[in-house]
Amino acid sequence: MKAVKHQKQPAPAQISWEQIVANLEDGVVTVDSQGKIVFFNEAAEILTDVSSVQATEQPFRQVFKSAPWLIDLANKTAPPRHEGVRGEGDLVTRWGRKTPVGVTVSPLQDRDGHYLGTILLLRDIKHRKELEEDLKRADRLATMGTLAAGLAHEIRNPLGGIKGAAQLLRRSFDEQSQLREYTDIMIREADRVNQLIEQLLDLSRPAQLMLAPINIHEILDDVLLLEGQTVSDKEIAIKKIFDPSLPPIRGDRVRLTQVFLNLVKNAFQAMDRGGALTVTTRLETDFHIRARGTARNRLIWIDIADEGSGIREQDLPHIFSPFFTTKNNGTGLGLATSYAIVKEHGGLIRVESSEGKGTTFKVSLVVAE
Ligand SMILES: Nc1ncnc2c1ncn2[C@@H]1O[C@H](COP(=O)(O)OP(=O)(O)OP(=O)(O)O)[C@@H](O)[C@H]1O
Ligand SMILES: [Mg+2]
Hints:
By secondary structure, this protein is α+β, with helices and mostly antiparallel strands.
């Protein structure tokens, strides 16, 4: 008989509490009764950009000085209250990276009820916040759609009347008459309003998608070629970082081209002083997002990163709303339309922006399988 060599498995007892806590996905911070940090796990390091070595032995209020709300919350557990509390807020790292977190703070007591300090659990709630934002936006768009459809109907008839009358008026002036200029303006502006109404209606009831497997790189190449020509006189570099092994996605070529045209146009418009536009494609690897789709729905991401003006923080919540624009000649429908199209495809749009540095729009789409 062959001797079987048993590999020694570590007994469960050998896994220490510290190892378990260190590997938790939630940030765990323990503070002693003097207010000094005594434990700081890896997830807390990632959330704060502060290493455990830097944080340990330091005053809690020093390490978290950019989050006064968290210090207030932690203070609530101190004697004489001894109560656990929950809260939500943003953590901002010294590099300016902001993460929304949900926090549970509990007093740490020994068996006899003596206060030893505080334990904080920090959970990254970015994904939940984004989902909430998505829902609110979808709701706003739906309300807007009903309103738009009603309004469009009411506006179109009188508009047709105005345009018809202007055309008649135009004919009654002879060719040289300067007044023809005025009637031409009336006709042109009536057409413009009509076009706006069409776009608005598109938003409220997006066209039927013609879904087929698509190589997204072909669409991006076309868009970059087309839009690249319009900025050839500016100092703009276009970089493509395409994953050559990317699978085809399921989508409507015409509608998706419209999405990327809008995003690339916005990026170029934001870079009047030049800069680089980087377009990256990749397969989704974050399990938070993968877990949300059905098991079979794999996603790809397309990142459009510019080095333009960036978006002001107070504007960020509004950029996907119809008619929100900061441009003199913008209609503010580009992002609203793109958002509606991507949603129809079962994808997501995310944005990260830093004023004066640039903006990255991220679009996810579903792999054709
Ligand atoms: N890449 C970007 N960099 C900086 N700001 C941006 C960027 N993309 C969008 N924005 C901001 O979002 C607003 C809305 O964009 P959107 O594309 O919907 O409308 P618009 O570009 O203003 O007009 P339109 O696309 O209808 O011509 C812009 O006016 C701008 O303030
Ligand atoms: Mg635009």
